Amino acid sequence: MQKYILIVIITIITAFSSVHAQIIHVMLDLKNHKNDNRNITGCNLDPQTNNYKMYIHSGVCTATTPGVPDTIDCQNPDYVWEHVVGDWGLDNGKGLMSALPDSVWEIFIDVDTFYSNAQTISQGGQSGEPPSTVKPVGSTAYSMGFVFRNEDGTIGGKTGGCTDFFIFNLNQGNTGVDVGQPGFTLPDSTFSVENTGNSTSIDEVLQVSFESVYPNPFSDQVKFTYTAPKATNEINFSIFNTLGQRVRNLYQGPIDQGVSTITWDANNDLGAEVVNGLYYMVISNGKYSKSEVLIKQK
User: Fold this and answer.
1) Which of 5, 39, 125, 223 has its CB 3.0 to 4.6 Å from that of 129, i.e. a possible disulfide?
2) Contact, 171 vs 142, CB < 8 A?
């Protein structure tokens, strides 16, 4: 009997440049996902329309809000949804994931900026929930909760028997995903979880490392010099914004051994110049990722 599974790859990345950031890479693989109660969550998430979109509705707990008095409460699913991004049922880009080939979706979340922006923090959830609180800049996120949905919230999320997903001890680099309640972790065969918080291990498994990013901050272009200790068949270089959305796919394919340079001209995939702000240059081999924080300014 064929086994149908929902695969979520969680990667925690620690990025260093002029800015320090902790980034969560969530990759949702639906190519083997079957829409019935026999799959791991019971969620119906497969595309139903030609212009189908995938959103992640997520939140973190910092224990900095009145009513959440102690960091230990961040181990309680009731408190994890303290600072939330995602307005349920609204197609407004908050938590919008990037579509990859073959029913794969991904998003890169900078834990500090993603939940600390008053313009993107949730203004209302399911059942008329009030606006969420903004994560204080620089505060520690101890846990994370998330669910998935389509653009209008009619598919996925908690429907069809689906439940919330949680990552506890997030501040310690943990990427173990719990379902519903702590202690009910899904089997490794269903969730592929990698912790790449150690930069040395990233270089070892990814086989590509940044040598320089210049200039940074930049105005019209930025050059990335990288080293590959050996030729690699499939590497992707992409630019993401602070909403975790891919704005430019710079290159995908094989790379040669040695030192090389790739340039970003500050344009998106449509050829339009991006606005000033923070961006992330991400190198990925499909399973492991490494990023550098960029600052675009005039």
Assistant:
1) 125
2) yes
Cβ atoms of 248 and 264 closer than 8 Å: yes
Beta strands in 206-276 (DSSP E): 209-214, 222-228, 232-241, 246-255, 258-264
Tokens of 180: 């519903």
Q: Give strand ranges (E) for the chain.
A: 7-16, 20-29, 55-61, 83-85, 98-100, 104-110, 143-149, 165-168, 177-179, 192-196, 209-214, 222-228, 232-241, 246-255, 258-264, 277-284, 289-296
- Provide the CB-side half-sphere exposure for 5 (13 A, CA): 13
Which backbone phi and psi does 72 adopt, to 5 degrees?
-65, -25
Residues of CATH 2.60.40.10 domain(s) within the chain? 199-296
| Unique residue bearing structure tokens 């064929």 | 2
Domain 199-296 sits in CATH 2.40.50.140: no
DSSP single-letter state for residue 62: -
Token reading at 147: 């669910």
CA 157 to chain centre: 17
Distance separating alpha carbons of residues 27 and 283, to the nearest angstrom: 15
pTM of the model: 0.71
Pull the structure tokens for residue 251. Answer: 């290159």
CA 174/CA 242 separation, integer angstroms: 22
Residue type for 2, please? Q
pLDDT string in tens for the chain (298-residue length): 333 345 566 666 554 433 446 778 787 776 655 544 444 444 566 655 667 788 888 999 999 887 788 888 898 888 898 999 988 888 888 899 888 777 777 888 888 888 988 888 898 755 567 888 999 988 888 999 888 888 887 777 665 456 788 888 888 777 777 777 655 555 433 444 444 443 334 455 456 767 788 898 999 999 998 888 888 888 889 998 888 788 999 998 888 888 889 999 999 999 999 999 889 888 877 666 777 888 999 7
Q: Is 24 helix (H, G, I), strand (E, B) or coil?
A: strand
